[in-house]
Amino acid sequence: MDIEQAKQLRRELDVFVSLFSDCIKTEPSRRHFRTYVAGQVSNLERKNVAAIALDVGVPPRSLQEFLGIHLWDELGARDRVQERVMGRHADPNGTGVIDETSFPKKGDKTAGVQRQYCGATGKTDNCVVTVHLGYVTEDFHALLDADLYLPEAWLADRERCREAGIPDSVVYRPKWRIALDLLDHALGKGVRLKWVTADEEYGRCTAFRTQVGAWGLFYVVEVPCSQTGWTRRPRVVEPRERRSPRRGRPPRKPRLAWNAPPARRVDALWKRGGPSWGLFHIKNTEKGPVVWEARLSRFFPWDEELPGEECWLIVARNVLDGKVKYFLSNAPRDTPAEVLLHVAFNRCHVERLFQDSKGEVGLDHFEVRHYRALRRHLVLSMVSLLFLEEQTQRIRGEKSVVEPLRGSRGRRSTTRPADRPEREDTPPPRGFPQDRILAAGKATGGPLPLETAPKGTQTTRHQAVPSQKVLQCFLAL
Predict the structure, then answer these.
(1) DSSP single-letter state for residue 23
(2) Does the pLDDT of residue 293 top 90, yes or no?
(3) In sequence order, what E strands does 224-358 have?
(4) Which residues contact 355 (CB under 8 A, 6 or more apart)?
(5) What are the pLDDT digits (tens) for 185-194?
């Protein structure tokens, strides 16, 4: 990267930040907005308010006031991010990815902090949890929205809420409800989605699945192994008006027939037999291909003692380590298995977005306590990450690599990759992981179908942001 490209980066940032000028009414606040975003995309080791302010010679107090008390519309800036993504990166097969992330914190003053499961440390810890909506297409991914999860214990103590700046109008919402609110707002602002995917925290909730389906979206959500249901719809007795007097109150709602089989756990449906396993190449990584076995069946999940709407049950098993995942989907009956599995594993992109947000723009570097300042930090981090994603594509001159949607434009390709030798009778080195993959393919009745990426794409791991050297050149100007 030369000096002219570095200068262009600075001009691009000025143009990008100007898109949000109507959300910020005063010139000092606009300057602080640009300062904060520029600091987040810089090569600073810590990207909190103090570090960003001192790096550019701004009093830290003024930048703290910008986050906490200045009058500017952070929700309007959030909407502008969604408009930008839809204007430049919309895809008819776009997937909305719901997930949460956590930030370990000390003390008890930060809004929403309490001892709860913390994914960052892998244990119950003192932390703050936020719920996010990501957007994934074949060549792009970004964060569209985020909100802070406030535990019930916090909202039961209104005095503590006032100290943290939480309005009295804020009520408790479980994480799945926050996720639905994020989706509802995005759809209302013109975000076009075809699919929604989420982990078992959200997939286990019947209300979440029902509402997503009511919006006309297809979901592929993970569910716990304790999910129960039926592979065949059990007989349900509808309430009828009694024509002859009998003792007791007549039934007022549908109920299972007396001889209906009980709902069974998804991990206990087939002890022997069942749908056949198929091998599927999910994606390529730096460590090699990711291959899962999968079996699919129609399924009726348990819903308040009655069978719910018919859907897909996908059981996926990792070829190498035997790890098993369970998914439910309301996709049509003729949906290819490749498409369902692709959407199910699209959640890895939001994990990469969290990794980039924390590692490159300082999503977890905040040191604010108040509710409004924290929510503004989440929005500014989305703005900064979107800038880096777009500039990465521009600098490379090609689109970022995201695994294409198998089956969306035709059948799976079984063409041998270009870098693979013409002859395949030469065995791989002893002990190489591919041994077990090929062995599993033979055990299921045939070789593993190989897949190749479309022309113009790479098969390396997705790189989401420019290198540190690029950012250093950018800051040196």
Answers:
(1) G
(2) yes
(3) 228-230, 236-237, 255-256, 264-265, 278-285, 288-303, 306-307, 311-318, 324-329
(4) none
(5) 999 999 999 9
